[in-house]
């Protein structure tokens, strides 16, 4: 129609028409100035590579977008330059007249610095006016403008925007086309469905040094409308939009994604909504992007393997005892103080190891290392816990029913199998505990992860073939035992049926260890082992030189092939790696930081800040996690964005607000309480005195 033609002509659009059928719509201006606008917020390549949406509203929306307006400003500036005119001739007059003097810039820079420190230290915006008053008390000239908490929130948003734009510009310079994402959700706040965290991973090549480096950073946090696959994909699509990544829901071929940012990998936990092949996030993305490689977090799989393996009655019994011991002290400062006094009094007798006294939490969403720490705490301070339980039973201020429960609880704790089980499982969980801590480290790569898994499985096999009575922690317990009339005594506590309990515990613990190896293998089989092994061959650069020097003459699988040709190919691959990959350095590091960011989430979004909008939470995360140290922070970029992002100017010379005069009090006739007119003197500070006579007249 004529309207459609007018819209396309006014917005500088063109069309790709073949056989009288409209195929794609392009924006010639955005295509021309792509390098200048690709770092802007909400930038996409849809109108550069061609949009299939032919609706008029789609053209109007793009023509009115900030990205298209920036491209048009570039076009007008080039036209003015070609005519020999200054750039101000094509810029808005008001914008050209806005200037910020050095004194004003210095004041505003100090305020931006305060907002940066507040975001770094997770301080609420309500503290901003108090910090300004403190600076004014130190004779710092900050002016009177922009001194409200809302101003601090706006400044924080501009600081975060400046950081993200700088990062996007660096990606454009280094020509990053391949991205991977790591995502996880948190339901710590009951005020929304879920906070979905996205961490970005990309690889960049330095043209000068020809070195390939990986970049891992926090990218975004979103609150999806629904906690299903559709809602999560919608949040993921919105998060990746500024990168120009191709539409996640469009069926595209490999030929159409040349020289375009592409999503090549993803990682998540083992929730069914994430890894389901049918309607999960992984299944829908792999149907849209067939080349996508989706990984399931090794640390989560290890935890699930331990939950599947340690299912013996002894381990369940130990878990229940630890849980009840933790809740005994969790919300009782008095009991915690009494326990500390008991440990201090018994220290010279039993020589307790250094460390905390309170039982640690080991249930719920805890890593396996927390369970081992709780078991080790019981072994170290077993005698102190028993003495305190005796004191609680004799305390008459406690209810009789609670003291009866404590008596039964004490009988179980004094049983030998409780101490022996804690000691054995402390050693049994050591290999997987260390592996879990390694997988949670931000400086671990996939080669190191697989290597540590293999080492842990080897250690587990060796441990299962050793008599549990020779394990280190149980040996330490046995060295502290004393004989008391044929009974065993540990830290002053008589252990009942020690030898019989020892044999029973050995059977349960060894059975759990045998199940653990099988469970880990089953969890690892979820991944595409063939693809994973092929990836490891190429990125395990530290062993390339060894492989090329050793040769393959003695390899049984190499029989019947031309060994010399393969040897030359391997040598060429090694030479290529020496040129482009730094052998001997761990380049592919920092795999997962999502779980660590959830700890930041609890610090930033506290119980008193549950009303934080997702956009504000994202800005605070951007500064808190990815912001530079204070001594390296420069507010000029954010200050310039804030200064230009206004159509009516900034109020940088605002005077101090005057206090309003108190309102005049009105009498019963609706007139002001002026003594010259009404003959009364009723002030706000002196209210009308009400006597009983007036009260009686009112009801009469």
How many beta-strand elements? 10
Rounded to an integer in angstroms, the radius of gyration calculated over CA atoms is 35 Å
Broad structural category: alpha+beta
The number of distinct helices, counting runs of at least 4 residues, comes to: 32
Give the N-to-C terminal Cα separation: 81 Å
Q: Sheet with the most strands?
A: 5 strands, mixed
- Strand order within the widest beta sheet: 5-4-3-6-7
Strand content: 5-15%
Helix content: 40-55%
> What is the approximate shape?
globular
The mean pLDDT is: 76
pLDDT < 50 runs, ≥5 residues: 1-11, 93-97, 251-257, 551-559, 580-591, 673-685
Please, could you describe this protein's structure?
This protein is α+β, with helices and mostly antiparallel strands and 700 residues long. Helices cover 54% and strands 10% of the residues. The protein has 32 helices and ten strands. A hairpin with a 2-residue loop joins strand 9 (487-490) and strand 10 (493-495). The chain is globular, with a radius of gyration of 35 Å.
């Amino acid at each position: 129609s004529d309207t459609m033609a007018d819209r396309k002509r006014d917005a500088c659009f063109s069309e790709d028409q073949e056989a009288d059928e409209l195929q794609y719509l392009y924006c010639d201006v955005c295509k021309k100035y792509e390098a200048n606008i690709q770092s802007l917020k909400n930038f996409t390549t849809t109108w550069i590579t061609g949009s299939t949406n032919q609706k008029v509203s789609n053209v109007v929306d793009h023509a009115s977008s900030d990205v298209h307006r920036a491209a048009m400003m570039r076009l007008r500036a080039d036209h003015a330059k070609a005519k020999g005119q200054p750039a101000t001739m094509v810029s808005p007059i008001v914008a050209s007249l806005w200037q910020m003097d050095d004194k004003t810039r210095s004041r505003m820079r100090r305020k931006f610095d305060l907002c940066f420190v507040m975001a770094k230290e997770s301080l609420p915006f309500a503290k901003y006016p108090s910090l300004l008053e403190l600076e004014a008390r130190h004779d710092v000239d900050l002016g009177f403008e922009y001194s409200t908490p809302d101003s601090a929130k706006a400044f924080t948003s501009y600081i975060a925007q400046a950081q993200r734009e700088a990062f996007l510009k660096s990606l454009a310079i280094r020509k990053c086309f391949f991205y991977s994402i790591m995502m996880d959700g948190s339901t710590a706040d009951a005020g929304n469905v879920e906070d979905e965290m996205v961490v970005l991973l990309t690889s960049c090549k330095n043209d000068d040094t020809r070195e390939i480096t990986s970049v891992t950073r926090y990218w975004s946090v979103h609150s999806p409308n629904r906690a299903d696959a559709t809602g999560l994909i919608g949040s993921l699509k919105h998060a990746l939009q500024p990168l120009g990544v191709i539409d996640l829901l469009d069926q595209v071929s490999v030929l159409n994604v040349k020289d375009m940012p592409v999503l090549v990998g993803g990682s998540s936990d083992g929730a069914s909504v994430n890894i389901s092949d049918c309607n999960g996030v992984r299944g829908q993305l792999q149907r849209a992007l067939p080349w996508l490689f989706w990984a399931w977090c090794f640390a989560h799989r290890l935890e699930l393997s331990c939950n599947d393996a340690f299912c013996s009655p002894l381990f369940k019994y130990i878990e229940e005892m630890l849980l009840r011991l933790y809740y005994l002290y969790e919300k009782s400062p008095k009991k915690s103080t009494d326990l500390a006094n008991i440990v201090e009094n018994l220290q010279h007798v039993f020589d307790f190891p250094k460390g905390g006294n309170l039982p640690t939490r080991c249930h719920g969403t805890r890593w396996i290392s927390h369970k081992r720490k709780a078991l080790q705490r019981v072994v170290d301070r077993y005698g102190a816990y028993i003495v305190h339980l005796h004191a609680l039973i004799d305390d008459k201020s406690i209810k009789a029913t609670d003291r009866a429960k404590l008596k039964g609880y004490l009988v179980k704790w004094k049983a030998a199998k409780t101490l022996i089980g804690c000691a054995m499982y402390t050693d049994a969980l050591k290999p997987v505990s260390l592996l879990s801590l390694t997988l949670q480290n931000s400086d671990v790569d996939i080669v190191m992860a697989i290597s540590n898994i293999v080492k842990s499985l080897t250690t587990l096999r060796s441990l299962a073939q050793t008599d549990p009575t020779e394990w280190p922690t149980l040996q330490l317990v046995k060295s502290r035992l004393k004989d008391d009339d044929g009974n065993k005594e540990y830290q002053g506590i008589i252990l009942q049926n020690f030898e019989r309990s020892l044999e029973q515990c050995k059977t349960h613990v060894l059975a759990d260890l045998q199940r653990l190896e099988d469970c880990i293998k089953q969890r690892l089989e979820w991944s595409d082992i063939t693809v994973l092994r092929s990836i490891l061959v190429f990125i395990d650069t530290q062993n390339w030189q060894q492989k090329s020097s050793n040769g393959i003459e003695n390899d049984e699988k190499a029989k019947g092939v031309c060994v010399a040709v393969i040897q030359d190919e391997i040598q060429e691959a090694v030479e290529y790696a020496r040129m482009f990959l730094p052998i001997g350095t761990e380049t592919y590091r920092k795999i997962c930081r999502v779980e660590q960011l959830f700890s930041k989430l609890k610090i930033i979004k506290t119980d008193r800040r549950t009303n934080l909008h997702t956009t504000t939470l994202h800005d605070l995360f951007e500064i808190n996690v990815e912001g530079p140290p204070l001594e390296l922070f420069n507010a000029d970029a954010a200050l310039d964005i804030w200064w230009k992002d206004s159509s009516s100017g900034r109020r940088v010379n605002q005077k101090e607000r005057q206090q309003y005069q108190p309102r005049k009090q009105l009498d019963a006739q609706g007139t002001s309480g002026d003594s010259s007119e009404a003959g009364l003197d009723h002030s706000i500070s002196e209210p009308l005195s009400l006597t009983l006579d007036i009260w009686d007249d009112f009801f009469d």
